[in-house]
Amino acid sequence: MVYRNANDGNMVIRRCCTSGCGEDGKTSEFEGREAYFCTSNLCNATQSTSTSTITTATTTVQTSLACYDCSGFNEQCGTESTLISNCRSCMVYRNPVDQTKIERHCCYWNCGSSGTITEYDGRPTYFCSNDRCNGIGVESLLEPTGFSEQCGTESTLISNCRSCMVYRNPVDQTKIERHCCYWNCGTPGSVSEYDGRPTYFCTNDKCNGIGAEYNLGSPATTSTTTTASLIGPCILNCKNGGTLETVDGCYCYCVENTSGKECETIDCSKQDENDEACNVGNKPLCYESEIFVHECRHLCELC
């Protein structure tokens, strides 16, 4: 896709479109702007796409508001390296696929009132209008992970999964997490240990919807409130998708290809194992699934 950014002197933007795309070879509205779409390799390049097909906006928004613009899968998200300018508003929301990840972005259109949580593209989003106001910490204004009222509805569906899975949120076990499994999935129709938690797996479309959680055991009585542990003699901050062992708080469950006391080490010596999944066409999944990020660590630029 190609469009003009009315907030930056009508600069031409060339992007990959993954959803809500217009018809091939035609111009249509996308996120409040006119965009041109095409479906052949590299068709939005300078040489092959005429930006004259895109109408120049007649009005522009002149603002110098600086916001963090990044995904929570980026460890630098919320630091100076992820700042951009010329925003109308800053916004923060939880990644709809992995709600433990925080998305910080620049809003150009249809922004909510500053200082409020407003529905934006189907998800609760906090808006603010001061420089860098969507930095680290402001996500505390959002509902805790696992509390999405939309979880289990059509708006939270994704495709290209090997298996569906359901487990209890490790922080609040009364909340249910429904996710797509790409690797190391358990036997369909059974409850298996997955990243240190009992998880139910199934292989029919939408099989991890509302009601599937009844295959799990009762909620545990012990829980933690953050990934950082203050239990016993240990203070741990499990990194790279690691999850805290909740009994004594002195152990992190590490995902495959990570190691160390806090899962801080990523094994970059081997190439991504699954060539079929870890291809450039699936790169958008790097921003949707923490599991995919660590299995496709080279594709997703962890290595």
Automatic annotation (TrEMBL):
Domain EGF-like, first and last residues per copy: 252-263
Stated name of the protein = EGF-like domain-containing protein
Q: Which PROSITE patterns match?
A: EGF_1
Family annotation (InterPro entries): EGF
